[in-house]
Design brief:
Blueprint: E1 3-5, H1 16-20, E2 25-30, E3 34-37, H2 40-43, E4 55-57, H3 58-62, H4 67-78, E5 85-91, E6 94-107, E7 112-123, H5 125-172, H6 176-203, E8 211-213, H7 215-221, H8 223-229, E9 234-240, E10 248-250, H9 252-270, E11 273-283, E12 286-293, H10 321-331, E13 335-340, E14 345-352
Parallel strand pairs: 1-6, 9-11
Antiparallel strand pairs: 2-3, 2-7, 3-4, 5-6, 6-7, 8-10, 11-12, 12-14, 13-14
Helix pairs in contact: 5-6, 9-10
Length: 355
Amino acid sequence: MAAHLGQTGSSIGAAPHVLAGLNAGLVYIDTAGCIQVWNELAAELLDYPPPIGERAPLEAVLGPEREEARLLRQVVHERTPWRNLVVQWTGRGAVRHVLMDSYPVSTADGDVVGAYVTIKDLGNFTMLDQHIQRTERLATVGKVAAGVAHEIRNPLTTVRGFLQVMVAQLERRGWPEGRQYVDMMLREIDKVDALVEELLLLSKPQQVVKRPCDVRDLIEDLGPWLEEQTAGKAIRIRVETPVQLPRVAADPGLLRCALQQLLENAIDAMEQAGTLTIRCLHQGQLVQVDIQDTGPGIPYYQMDKVFDAFFTTKEKGTGLGLPICQRIVADHGGEIRVASKGFGTTFSMLLPIGS
């Protein structure tokens, strides 16, 4: 059903702060081919947006050859409302998908003079599809892990027990070299057991016991471990944290696990020399923790794979560290991001502030 105006033209009755807070762009298109932009979200979708509320020719805002301009003119000429129309929108060098709804506007005499159009950015469908595929793969890995963990751990426990018995017998028989062989086998069993533990971390949501947690304390506690990991290497560690940093709502044990994995990856990326920067920032209702290295960076064609289970560029890596980090941060209601532009890589954890 069309909205009505007492006179020809557009009219916005909502307060400016309501339009600014609208979770979609709002524009008005009239039959003369002019457009009015009513909030910043709409302005972000246009190449040359006019000032909020001012009329401008549609061609000047989008260009006469743009498919989006043709579509907006069609909205007015058809004079019927559109609902849930998914459109590929190109603007400001980005390709995105938007959801459009239109609301024809008519005068009291019933003449259609324009239409309001809401435009909601749905983001990049390709990235969304990749996220869904990654989630499905992790779910599959989790099911396999949960199914085989019991079958793997039982024989490992048995082998470990017999090896420990052998240690005592070898010592009684005076064969110290045999102890070295047994210790080597026990270390290999520990590696398999650690791999099973990592798989189980992906198999089901962890029990997250949240409490107010100071990220700076966790970083300070990891200091001795960092010194051990960088011993004998020319790696400089730089910590940048503000004097006032809100606490996050987190499970300290799980958050420490995620931090440790990201730090270990950064150290490995730099091999023998570089700078490891740990930076904390207060971003609105979030605390952002950046782990930045000065290694060679991640090639662009691998950026969408770094969180895939079993994907690794390390010779002896399992490819489970980053998926586990992502799972831990997601279980805390946060997000993890990665940025790499030819030199160096930054992983950012965004965590909700605790009460």
